[in-house]
Amino acid sequence: MVRLGEIYRGGEGYMVLADEIILKEATIADAVLFENYQLKETPYTVKPMTAMTDSLHETKKFPVLILKEETLVGFFILQKEKGFSTYPTEENALLLHAHSIDERFQNKGYGKLSMERLPLFIKENFDSIDEIVLAVDYDNLSGQMLYLKTGFVDTKKRSKEDGAYKFIYSKKI
């Protein structure tokens, strides 16, 4: 049995086991998990399948599942060599986007826990990465608080995407 906090080398990449969640790179076989994912799409959120298909033509994109046992509780995408016009990412950085938690599991700490565990997941799966970059909407206060509480800092850069202004946050790992 793998103990909490240990790394398990799975067939499709590493999984980080910690405090009831597993971060795992998604594969085609995981598509069935998205069928019951409950999330009202808002200006801040997008369902996992939509996030993955919106950018099928893009490369160096790594969809990540947030699992509690075998249940999908959340999702996000990590992407290399993509940034914002006002804050291009360097080769040593990953862009985090499409972070969401299934409505049935919100307000239980999974969003925070996934962001706290993310640096270890990245270190185990991406050798040369030492920074995570993301954009969060000006009026998405809960998102801003989540990222700030988990070690992201405001870069003081701003981006306008899809008609909305966003803060650019960064976290060194």
From TrEMBL:
Residues 21-173 form the N-acetyltransferase domain. Gene3D superfamilies: 3.40.630.30. It comes from Carnobacterium antarcticum. Pfam families: Acetyltransf_1. It comes from the Bacteria. The keyword Cell inner membrane does not apply. Keywords: Acyltransferase, Transferase. GO terms for molecular function: acyltransferase activity. InterPro entries: Acyl_CoA_acyltransferase, GNAT_dom. Its EC number is 2.3.-.-. This is GNAT family N-acetyltransferase.
